[in-house]
Amino acid sequence: MTEVAQTIFRHILNIPLMVSSWFIFFFAFDQSFFICSALALGVYLVSNFSIKKLQQHSIMKKHQLTHSEYFHIQNQLKEANKKVRTLNNQYLKVRSISSFKQLFEMNRLAKRIISLVKANPRKFYQAENFFYAHLDSAVELTSKYSLLVSQPVKNSDMKIALQDTRDTLQALNSVLEDDLKDVLASDIEHLKMELDFAKLSVVTKERPLYLKGESDDERKTIEYK
Q1: Backbone phi, then psi, for 120, in 5-degree steps?
Q2: Helix, strand, coil shares of the chain as percentages rounded to 5?
Q3: Would the pTM count as exceeding 0.85?
Q4: Which helix or strand (DSSP H or E) is residue 214 part of?
Q5: Using one digit for the tens of pLDDT, what is the confidence trace for 136-167?
Q6: CB atoms near residue 97 (< 10 Å)
Q7: Angle made by CA atoms 63, 110, 64, in degrees to the nearest 5
Q8: Is 217 exposed, middle or buried (0-12, 13-18, 19+ CB in 10 A)?
Q9: H/E stretch holding 88
């Protein structure tokens, strides 16, 4: 269940609970409207907090993460989302189609890695270089490139710097592709194992196992008996 789905689920549970508790406080305990509203809001907040903690505990248990590991990963995801938003702000500052495509690809790769880690926090350890270094480099280089390209006057040194930056950003895109492959590596390996098992099951079904020295004619004779 995604974070958005978890939030919706909590609201679906807590809003009816809040409304019900308001009526209970108002009619059963004969409290004033404002006191009932305050108490119902308190019920909502406590219930929402409790369910959220249970959801987090379930995720930590599922992915075998400690409390500190889980919240460290969540903080890294928040920081990564901020950096991606910074990348998005550069779209209007680039001046060429090639640079726009380059930036678009960089954003796409970054968002894909982040979404995979959100879905499975354990994958964070397969993308530590992305979170600790590569995404920072992408943001810094893109910002500097946008600054240089926006200058009205470009001498030879600036043109060389721009070309070097473009080349570095292209190389960085390849690095982000490798980061994505690292995140997907375990899924690909698991898929290969599933395919091997499925193929073995099909072969076994089509060609049943025989005892040592047993022939097709002997097997047919036994089946007909």
Answers
A1: -140, 90
A2: 85, 0, 15
A3: no
A4: none
A5: 999 999 988 888 888 777 788 888 888 898 89
A6: 8
A7: 5
A8: exposed
A9: helix 67-88
